[in-house]
Write a structure and sequence with these properties.
The protein is of the alpha+beta class. The protein folds into two domains: 66 residues, Arc Repressor Mutant, subunit A, CATH 1.10.10; 52 residues, Dna Ligase, domain 1, CATH 3.30.1490.190. Helices cover 38% and strands 18% of the residues. The chain is built from five helices and five strands; from the N terminus they run αααββββαβα. The protein has a three-stranded mixed beta sheet with strand order 4-3-5, with no helix packed on it. It has a two-stranded antiparallel sheet with strand order 1-2. α2 crosses α3.
Length: 134
Amino acid sequence: MNHSTHPVLTRNQSLVYDTLSDADGPLSAYAILDQLRDAGFRAPLQVYRALDKLVAAGLVHRLESLNAFVACSDPDCDTHAMTAFAICEKCGQVIEFADDRFATLLGRWSKAAHFTPSKTTIELRGLCSGCRSP
């Protein structure tokens, strides 16, 4: 979804989105809840409902391997068939990137293997250039 045309967000969705946008790295639902207690959040379900809608709207991504969430950093995310994430194991930085060749290659494999994927998440774990340097 083009971020400039995102749907009108509820108060809770806006608070969760802003929390993720201001974060230095991915946050779990419970970390978001802790940050939003002063804003009236009392239960994890409030955060999860907001996250579900934000993920569906393409404004937030779930990082499967971390069980955490990040605000989408690509304003044209919806134009890509597939998005990938490079996650630094030292500093926690997440770099979002897209290359439609991923989707083409996985599509060919799926067709040849007679496999119908229901969900695809590509995550690379390693060290960013800042942490890799001595």
